[in-house]
Amino acid sequence: MKILHVITSLYTGGAEKLMVDLLPRMQKKGHQVELCIFDGTRTPFFVQLENSGIKIHWFRKGGSVYNPLNVYRLWRLMCKGWDIVHTHNTAPQLFAAFGGVLCSVVLVTTEHNTSNRRRNWKWYAWFDRWMFRQYKEVICISDQAEINHRNHMSDNDNKNVCTIYNGIDYHKYANAVPAEDIRSLGEKIITNVAGFRYQKDQPTLIKAMKYLPDNYHLCLVGDGERRAEFEALIKEHRLEQRVHLSGLRSDVPEILAASDYIVMCSHFEGLSLSSLEGMASGKPFLADDVDGLREIVKGNGVLFGYKDAKGFADAVLKLDNDTTYRERIVKQCQAKAIRYDISVMTEKYLDVYKKVLG
Questions:
Q1: Distance of alpha carbon 358 from alpha carbon 127, whole angstroms
Q2: Taking the CB of residue 61, how many other CB atoms lie within 10 A of it?
Q3: I need a labelling partner for 313 at 20 to 30 A (CA). Which of 25, 214, 249, 307 fits?
C-alpha cells in the first residue's frame, strides 16, 4: 500500500512519538509510507524518522498550523495517488476532510485523546460531525476515548469507529542504560516526559516539590508554549536548584532508566504512550486520576488526586519508605506495559487499511 500520514509537527507528544515507532515498522513490511507535517521544524523526532528512511513532506517552519494555505498544500499532496491518507490532530483532520472532497482518496484518522476543547463549542458540533463523516474509519486509542467520541457524534456517525491501543517498543525501555547527566542531577530523580502545553499539568508537579525533602529533584523533559510560565512558577517557589527543564531529548529510554520515579500529570489523556514507556522502564510509575490515565494505571501503578500536589508528594514518600510495596508496583507496571508492544498495534492498523480498501 501507498500510505501518507499527516500530523501538525514532530515536537514532543504521544501522537508524534507514535509516528517515530509506527511508520518505520509499516515500511519494513513492504509498504510505501511517507509523512506530512505542517510545521517542519527539525526536532529529535524529525531526525529519528529521517534517519529511519521515512520521507517527510513539510510546509513551513513555525507559524500557525491553521494557516488556510495548508488546505491547498495538503490537497495537492493528497492528489498524488495514495491508497490511504491517515491524519492525526485537529488541523490535519479538518484540512484533509476538505481535501478529500476534491480528490479521490481513502481517509482514516486517529483520535488521540478522551477529550478536546472543540467539543465544548456547541456551535461547532455540526461541522465536527461533518468532518468525521469524510473518514472511512475513526480509530480511538482507548476504550474511554471511543466512548467519549461516540457520545459526541450522532448514532448514524458511529458505524466506522474502533479502538486500537497505542503501542510502545517495550524492550527498548525495559533494557535501557541510564543517562549519566540525568543521574547526576540529584539523589532522588522524579521525571515527567510531556509537551509544555495546556493538556499537561506540570504545575502540580512543580508545586509538589515544596512537600518533598531537598534531595528530591524534578526533571521535566519536553518543551512548548508554556515554558515561560513554568520558569516563572519555579522561580516563584524558589525551586531553581531542584526543578530542571531538560528540553527536547531523543534519549528518553535512557532518561527513564536514570530516574527513581516516573510521573504523568494531565488534565485528560487518550492513551498516554509516555505513561506506558514509564511503566516499562522498571521504575515506579505515578499518574493523576483522570480519563485516559486511570484506565491503564489503576491496579498497576499509583494514582493520586487531580491537581493534588501534596497527594503526589505523599505517594512518592510512601514508595520510598516501603521497599516491598515499591517492588510490587514496578512488577505490576511492567506486566501491564508489555501487553502494549507496538508490533500488535502495527498489524491492527494495517488490517484497518485493508478493510477500508475493500
A1: 28
A2: 10
A3: 249
Which helix or strand (DSSP H or E) is residue 180 part of? helix 180-183
Which residue, among 200, 12, 15, 178, has the nearest Cα to 92 in the 3D structure? 15
Question: Which residue in the block uniquely carries the three cell numbers 495517488?
Answer: 81
* Separation of alpha carbons 182 and 118, rounded Å: 38
Contact 325, 319 (CB under 8 A): yes
User: What predicted TM-score, i.e. pTM, was given to this entire model?
Assistant: 0.70
Q: pLDDT value at position 156?
A: 67
Grid coordinates representing 242?
531542584
Would the CA dihedral through 195, 198, 200, 202 be positive or negative? Answer: positive
Residue with cell 495514495: 82
Beta-strand pair 137-140/32-39? unpaired
Name residue, grid cell 516563584: 236
Distance CA 36, CA 49 (A): 12
Which DSSP state fits 179?
P
72 close to 96: Cβ distance less than 8 angstroms:
no
Q: Read off the C-alpha cell for 358.
A: 475493500
Pairing of strands 2-7, 55-60: unpaired
List Cβ neighbours of 113 (8 Å cut-off, separation of 6 or more). 145, 199, 268, 269, 270, 292
The set of cell numbers assigned to 318 is: 510512601
Give dist(CA 348, CA 163) in Å, integer.
10
SS3 helix, strand, coil % of the chain, rounded to 5? 45, 20, 35
Beta strands in the chain (DSSP E): 2-7, 32-39, 55-60, 84-88, 106-111, 137-140, 161-163, 188-193, 216-221, 243-247, 261-264, 285-288, 302-304
Write out pLDDT tens, residues 85-118. 999 999 999 999 999 998 989 999 999 877 777 7
